[in-house]
Amino acid sequence: IKMHFKCRNAEIPYLNSTIKRLLVPDEKVNWSSEWSSYQATDYTDPSTNGKPWADNDDLSAMRFNALDGAVNRKSHQVDYAFDVNGRPLNPMGRTGLSGRGILGRWGPNHAADPIVSRFKDGRLQFVAIKRKDTGEWAIPGGMVDPGEQVSATLKREFGEEALGGKAAQMEKVWGNGKQIYAGYVDDPRNTDNAWMETVVVNFHDSDGIMNDVKLEAGDDAASVRWVFVDANESLYASHQEFINLLKKAHCI
Ligand code: RP5
Ligand code: MG
Ligand code: MG
Question: Which residue intervals define the domain Nudix hydrolase in the entry (predicted)?
Fold first, then answer.
């Protein structure tokens, strides 16, 4: 996964705000690169305070790099470090913004991304949704709820965002999951102290089951459609890299 491009953009304001990131040059992304005067813009979206899915500011009560009650604070990739205030440090380096931003958790925020794919006229395609927040096309992923199995998140989010919340005859497709990635996501919401991680699972339909499933956008999705992988459309966060892994898995 390419590090810190989408979550280092100092040109555009941070999501739902007028806040801008401090510009972090390429050679200063790594924490090990000396920058003693580094002072990122500090921002935690006030609308997240008190939300059931959001942490409070009492970091001393949290068990980091561990399963903290039902909340998974373990990274898929590393044991992360902390800054002088005890805030988790983004393992991929500086983003120019400290605090939680709009994310709910200090440290890793766990998501799951279902890639439902098939061959159409000999070309590989997958189900994509248009995100309401940034307007970008994306895999219909979502956050893992506390205590939720990732396998359940994958089905739930696909149902909510791509099937309009309606249950469909997809059992056979769900039985077919192959994990293609687990780790960090270069998500535009990431900060120095809070970041997205995901598990990407491919559900490939080789039996034409999806031919009878009606796609319908719902929840955080404004629209939904099949996208050919060779169309090379630009996608949200690291999703193009996940599609590259999908192509590899299907020998393309
Ligand atoms: C991305 O954000 C993940 O890859 C996943 O697609 C998504 C989860 O967040 P929401 O869709 O719930 O905003 O980093
Ligand atoms: Mg969702
Ligand atoms: Mg989503």
Answer: 108-249
